[in-house]
Amino acid sequence: MSDLKPWLTLIYQRPGRLFIGALLMLAALLSGLGLLALSGWFITETALVGVLLAASLPATINLYVPGGGIRFFAVSRTVSRYVERLYNHDTVLLLLTDIRVALFRKLAAAGRGQRRELTGAQWLSRLTSDVDALDTLYLRLIAPTALAAFVTLLLFGLTWILFDVRIAASVALILGIAFAVATIGVYARTARIAARQSDQQESLRMAVVEHLEGFAELTAAGRVGKHGAWLMRQAHQTATEQVKADSRTGWHLAGSNLLINLSAAFALWAGFELFRAGMISGPVLVLLPIALLGLAEVYSMLPEAFGKLGATQASAARLNRDCRSNDLQQLPEEAIALPEGTALLAKDLTVKHPEHAPLFTHFDLQVKTGERVGILGHSGSGKSSLADTFSGLLAPSHGASSGLPCAYLTQKTVLFEDTLRANLLLGAPETSDTQLWRVLEMVDLAERFGSEPDQLDTWLGSSGSRLSGGEARRVALARVLLSPAPLLILDEPFTGVDAPTREKITKQMDVWLEGRTVISLAHGPDALPGTDRVVQLGV
């Protein structure tokens, strides 16, 4: 369960919503039990009165109070169930938001090098199936288990009040066994299978994605049929594991339902002796067994939830492992403090990627506050890795780097499938529309989007697909320029931008960036904005 601990802690950060959601579920469940129990009592009482009247014996019955109670429970069950579904599904969406935000924060802390350890197919699995396994943890597992235990205690108390303590203890023992069969028993018999099946499903999903991505190569090699047959064998093996887990879950579900029915039969048999002794009436004798039968509604949710708990743990373990933060491993060998008036200080840096030779060693750089430094180097010289190190995304293998908070324009343009406004506001959420138009004018895009019907609310498409490469790059540059960070790191800021536009933007950036510290990286001097000095890598 330790793998689930960080995610459970995250879920429990909304105790108010969880408590209200549990109360709504309890209201729906108690309304259902009340409807069953009161209906059973009313039908029995009506039948007994009918028998007495048929025998010409005096008998009376109050039709209004129990009839009103039945209508109340029927309406309250419907209303509470509707409100519960609406409220708890909204809660699940909020929990999903919390989980995804926490996940992306873990990814940001993990560093780019660590994120590259997994393929795209694996990350797709993490961000979809593994997250989905966690977002319904409360609604599928935690709340039903707690409610089943609570309602079982309530029925124990009801049995004690209506019958006696011995019968109540016996009923509680049977229900306790049913609870254990539906929870601990299912988990013990399916945890390993579910975890193994989760891993197999991930492997199969990765294989299918890779099959689709490499379909042309497989076709050229004449191996489409063989690889497809291998995928079918893997799918059959996964389905076999699923059948095994479902079969065990089904048997435990049947066992728990059998025990619930046994508790109802025992309560009826034991209560009949009390009825013969005149200690309880006939309708009361029927009320309790029917209420016990109503427990099947909540108990039936438990075996499936605990049958998937092993898979949920496996998903949590994968997320914890692959999104871990290597803070202890990324600490520099010696901490360095920024001298007064310094925006960035790098001392004796050695930067390398795992299983590769160092890109450069013994690199020193001091950038003063307000200074603009250009760093030049040919492709593969390590410019982007150096920028990653300055921004804190990549830990140096030797030496140390320290700097002011920074905004970083990475070499690869990243735009979200959203509006222009939403993409720009990522850099500074409080920015006004006037400032947005100012920065768009600076990167020579104001006229381009001013002619669009939606202007700032223009949809950019997937990864900015509605824009040219140069336009997408300038939107990303504008987003970074809007950031209030005192240090800007710009890696190839003018990729895809023609020379006249680049010169125009450079002149306008000089005024916008006055007093701020800028480190620009490019392959040639013509691709740099205005600089005070230039550092050449590989020299």
Query: What structural category arises from helix and sheet content?
Result: alpha/beta
Please give the CATH class of the largest domain. Mainly Alpha
Number of helices: 20
The separation of the N and C termini measures 54 Å
Shape: elongated
Total of domains: 2
Low-confidence stretches: 326-333
CATH fold category name of the largest domain: ABC transporter transmembrane region fold
Helix-strand sequence: HHHHHHHHHHHHHHEEEHEEHHHHEHEE
Largest sheet: 5 strands, parallel
Task: Spell out the CATH superfamily of the largest domain.
Answer: ABC transporter type 1, transmembrane domain
Query: Share of helix among residues?
Result: 55-70%
**Mean pLDDT over the residues:** 83
Gyration radius, to the nearest Å? 33 Å
> What CATH architecture label of the largest domain applies?
Up-down Bundle
Structure in words:
The strands form 2 sheets. The protein has a 5-stranded parallel beta sheet, sandwiched between helices. The chain has 2 domains: 321 residues, Up-down Bundle (ABC transporter transmembrane region fold), CATH 1.20.1560.10; 195 residues, 3-Layer(aba) Sandwich (Rossmann fold), CATH 3.40.50.300. The two termini are 54 Å apart. The chain has 539 residues and is of the alpha/beta class. Helices cover 64% and strands 9% of the residues. The chain is built from 20 helices and 8 strands.
